[in-house]
Amino acid sequence: MSKGTLAVISGFSGVGKGTVVSRLVKEYPYSLSVSATTRDPRPGEIPDQSYHFISKDRFEELIRDGGLIEWTNYVGNYYGTPRKFIEDEIRQGHDVILEIESDGAFQVRRLYPDAILIYMLPPTFAEVRSRLVGRGTESADKIRSRLAKARDIELDRARQYDFLIVNDDVDTCVKELDKIIRTKSGIRPSQTDLLDKLKKEADSMQL
Ligand code: 5GP
Predict the structure, then answer these.
(1) Whole-prediction pTM value?
(2) Per-residue CA distances from 33 to 50, 62, 88 (Å)
(3) If you count DSSP H runs as helices and E runs as strands, how many of each does the chain have, helices first?
(4) Whole-number Å distance between alpha carbons of 204 and 124
(5) Gap from CA of 79 to ligand 1 centroid (Å)
(6) What region, left, alpha or beta, does residue 184 occupy, with left being phi > 0 and alpha being psi -120 to 50 degrees?
(7) How many other C-beta atoms lie within 10 A of the C-beta of residue 49?
(8) Quick one: which of 127, 118, 131 has its CA closest to 176?
(9) Tell me, what's the pLDDT at 75?
């Protein structure tokens, strides 16, 4: 049996990747990696389905024991991908989706050079801000820090991904994502000015 593929999906928070990814794994035969995190659950999140919500001590123990294939500290909380699920699934030939940020994505690429790294972009930066504000789960300060991070770091990191995808419409985006993973083809960062356009827009925003 051939080994499964790892598809890593990243994007700014507020770009809607959660919605797209949950539709993708519902409608297509992909396995979804559930991350561990030390952040508090948000309303509506289900333990061990949305995340494994664990303590800082437990997280640090997992790091020491090699129980994570990657981990990072993002805006004050730990996030990481449990090793066992990933290894079991790819051994069984299943394709696995990881929804993680860019620091973790590059760690995955180093460990699994065949992994496909896909970066999800919003049509505009203004849209990201209004989605984050609309979600109403975070303070204005936290939103500002997430957006500033997106502008200062994420846009440049997106250039190092294998493929870009724009979340203009959820249905289309889900189909596109499946196609990129199956065919290992799509929009390469070097073939488009999408990132330059977003950078220009972000630079003109007051953060
Ligand atoms: P949120 O707190 O909004 O659920 O997630 C914050 C960020 O952490 C998102 O960019 C999300 O993709 C990322 N993230 C979630 N799980 C993991 C993980 O296991 N590893 C890494 N490196 N990032 C993660």
Answers:
(1) 0.92
(2) 10, 16, 11
(3) 9, 9
(4) 12
(5) 6
(6) left
(7) 10
(8) 118
(9) 81
Q: Is the CB of 102 under 6 A from ligand 1?
A: no
Neighbours of 4 (CB within 10 A): 18
Helix (H) or strand (E) holding 20: helix 17-27
Strand 77-82 to 68-74 pairing: antiparallel
User: What's the CA gap between 187 and 168, in Å, rounded?
Assistant: 15
Give me ligand 1 centre to Cα 169, in Å: 22
Mean per-residue pLDDT pooled into runs of 10, the chain (207 residues) = 92 87 97 98 94 98 98 94 98 97 97 97 87 80 79 89 96 98 96 92 78
Asked whether 206 and 125 are in contact (CB, 8 A), the reply is no
